[in-house]
Amino acid sequence: MAETKSVIGTQNKKGQIYTDTWKMMNEAPRTPSFFTGSEVIKEAIRRASCDVMIAYPITPQSEAAALIGELFAEGYIGDYFRGESEFAVMSQCAGAAFGGARVFTTTAGPGTMRAMENFPMWSGARLPIQMIVTCRGINSPLSIQPDTLEIAYLLNTGMLVWHAETAQDFFDWILKGYMVSEEPDVHLPLALCCDGFFVTHTKDVVNLTPADMCLPPYDPYRSPVPCMDMECPPVRMMRDPFVMKSNYISYATHASWQQEIWAAVERSRKHSIHWLNGLIDTENTDADIMIVASGTAVSQGREAIRLLEDEGIRCGLVKVKTIRPWPEEEIREATKNAKHIFVPEFNVTGWLAKEIKATVPNHHRVHAGPHVCGGMTMPPEIIVSEIKTALGMKTFSMAGRGS
Amino acid sequence: MSKERIQISEALYDIMPSDYQDLVKSATYGKEDRGWKDIGTSKELIEQHSLCAGCPESMAFRYILASLPNPEDTVMVGSTGCTSLVFPMVAVHNIHSLFGNQNAIASGLKRALSVRFPGRVKDVVVLAGDGATVDIGLDMTLQAWFRQEKFTTICFDNELYANTGGQESGLMQKGFVAKMAPVGKLFDKVRLPEIARESGCHYVVNCTVSKPSLVEKVIRNAVHIAREIGPTYLQLYTPCILEIGKNSMEGLQEMRDSEKPAERFAYKEYVSEPAKQLLAELAAKDKERKAAAKQLAAQAQAN
Questions:
Q1: CATH number of domain containing B245
Q2: Do B186 and B284 share a domain, yes or no?
């Protein structure tokens, strides 16, 4: 049963010291390293005290998934194997989490879609699995290029959904993510998303925590539901299985459990604010014009703001870090002075703009764009162009980008 | 889990459900030679269930739960179907997640338990219907066997989708007229026992559940071999009396008719060489244990 003695300060079998996560993330010295996003995922998992990682090849997450295999070979992970499809992998992750393991996996695009049936099951079963989503196109004809449309499909699964901008976000959030999703009053899976290729395949300077420090292990007996390991009494769960009953008590049970999942998403808010230093980051919130974005669109927005400044146009920025929980009040407050709100996105439907329109008063202020998709890059100039067009200012048209 | 874990605090004893009190008083967790003969003299690990009256699946459930060699450290994995109506009433931890993913769940579960409890026995047993095992979940059934995952897969073969109302399944006999097979099923019953052998299972049995002693034997063998060597597969005929037009009291006869020598559920068994060796070792140990017990009894009498 639950360990009553703290493991903090003791060593794991690789000689890493189980360290208080707050100290490890906020006080321990950091070493600047020049890594690809995939290598950063590996370095985060090296420090994450993971029990089980299950892999499947799909671009652009294959490299990260294979690098974690190397960690297993070195003895940093309890078990690791390649599953047969994303649907199976996400079920294998569920099995491992039901058995009380800290579980990690990665997927992308069509893999996310193939596995989709598992995600509401994960949250319904309160399994705090962490899944990296390196977003790519899901349209036909086949595309492997960056595109964030798949995030839209994750928003109603009951999972926590975070959207990293940089490899540094990735490194920190993988480790902090376990702290939020394993809280007893949360205990939900986390989809930690990034824009494929832009983050996974480019090199960046990332400040790493010491390699000899690692997270405290997961304690499955802090779960709000019993761990399926026969270490606690097997009680009869219910007199009649609710699936077969068409009566009020059955509906009420299902309804209250769904409400509980979403209440747990809400309860993750305070933990996410604590660990991520707020659900959003802001710059110049007194400006008339605001850019609200998530993922690498934030970086492009920042560049656009610099270009606009050169022309004497002042523009502010909101970086949305968590999509679930949704930072409703924060976004409303940060955009209260804005006359125009621009939402640049790497997908065709503009799911982030829709969320924002449903959040802010006077939603006609929201300009859903610019959008790029199918793997196109988003030069800051097209954000500038979108803003200037909306303001009635003269701008150059950019061929082929629909602006 | 040891039996102490299920003890009830004295202060709370009277408010615990009576079926739980019975589990503490007279269940057979930890009993080394537990088996079908305990039924009737001990608390079964299954409470009431909501299967049809006379359903052979309910008999199979009782025999299997009485025969698991190590229920105090066994986790079961089910799937959607009639079996999922029973699992909530079963006193070993069990998981239902989706339809057809039971062998994937069991793969992750078994590995997690091996990581978390090194050197300790934690058995995993999958129990699902034929739709889950052979149709929607076939990929994951086979892949778990290819990977040599160390757990037992039990298929309750009722030769159709019973819970949804009697539709055609892959294990249905050719020519049988059913929902979704309006002119009769056009292809043969899938030969999963043979496929299981070719896929790396170390112990494969195809039989009915008409004889509890036989069910006890194959369950014990399958769990022991899976624990020590690799995947095992049991395909048990549990006819859906409702959908084949039989009455509640006719299930047993239906099984007896179907296990005659030329019939499709005539007893068939495959045991790999390493599994044969293990079974021989277990039989020798069992003999030794019984001889020692006999000697002790004789000594006690002499004294």
A1: 3.40.50.970
A2: no
Q: Are A343 and A352 in contact (CB under 8 A)?
A: yes
Task: Give me the residues of B, 112-151, that contact A with CB < 8 A.
Answer: 112-117, 122, 139-140, 143, 147
Q: How confident is the model at residue B3 (pLDDT cuts 50, 70, 90)?
A: confident
Same domain, B65 and B168: yes
Q: Are both B131 and B53 inside the same structural domain?
A: yes
Residues B297, B225, single domain; the answer is no
**Domain assignment of residue B141, yes or no:** yes
Asked if residue B281 and residue B162 are part of one domain, the reply reads no
**CB-CB under 8 Å, A95 with B108:** yes
For residues B6 and A327, give the distance between their C-alpha atoms in angstroms, rounded to a whole number.
Answer: 44
Residue A235 binned pLDDT confidence (cut-offs 50, 70, 90) = low
How close B6 comes to chain A (CA, Å)?
A: 5
Cβ neighbours of residue B33 under 8 Å, at least 6 residues apart? none
**Helix H or strand E segment including B224:** helix B212-228
> Is the CB of residue B205 less than 8 Å from the CB of residue B268?
yes
Q: Name residues 190-229 of chain B within 8 A of A (Cβ).
A: none
Of A260-264, A337-341, B45-49, B191-195, minimum mean pLDDT range = B45-49
* Whether pLDDT at B99 is above 90: yes
Closest residue to A244, CB basis, from B50, B77, B109: B50
Residues of A in contact with B109 (CB under 8 A): 95-96, 98-99, 228
> A125 at the B interface (CB within 8 A)?
yes
Q: Is residue B19 part of a domain?
A: no
Domain span at B279:
274-303
Q: Could you state, in order of their start, the residue ranges of all structural domains in chain A?
A: 17-222, 281-390
Same domain, B186 and B300: no
Fold category of A17-222 in CATH = Rossmann fold (3.40.50)
Nearest CB partner across the interface for B108, out of A94, A117, A121? A94
pLDDT given for residue B270 in this prediction: 98
Handedness of CA B77, B83, B89, B91 (dihedral sign): negative
> ipTM of the predicted structure?
0.95
Cα B283 to Cα B268: distance, rounded to the nearest angstrom = 21
Task: For residue range B45-64, list pLDDT tens digits in order.
Answer: 998 888 999 999 999 999 99
Residues on chain B touching A118 (C-beta within 8 angstroms)? 97-98, 101
Q: What is the pLDDT of residues B119-158, one digit of tens each?
A: 999 999 999 999 999 999 999 999 999 999 999 999 999 9
Task: Please tell me which of the candidates B72, B75, B97 has its beta carbon nearest to residue A94.
Answer: B97
Partner A contacted by B98 (CB < 8 A): yes
Contact list in B for residue A228 (CB cut-off 8 A) is: 75, 93-95, 109
Chain A: residue whose CA lies nearest to B73: A230
Strand order from edge to edge, sheet including A289-293: A280-283, A315-320, A289-293, A340-342, A366-367
Asked if residue A403 has pLDDT above 50, the reply is: no
Q: Is B52 on the interface with A (CB under 8 A)?
A: no
Q: What CATH architecture is A281-390?
A: 3-Layer(aba) Sandwich (3.40)
User: Within a domain: residue B3?
Assistant: no
B25 located within any domain: no
Which residues are paired to B154 by β-bridges? B127, B234
Q: Determine the residue among A123, A227, A236, A245 to mutate to test chain B binding: the one whose Cβ has the most chain B Cβ atoms within 10 Å.
A: A236
Domain count within chain B = 2
Q: Do B286 and B255 reside in the same domain of the chain? A: no
Residues A361-400 pLDDT 10s: 999 999 999 999 999 999 999 999 999 999 999 886 665 5
What is B99-121 written as a DSSP string? SS-HHHHHHHHHHHHHHHSTTS-
Mean pLDDT of A347-370: 97
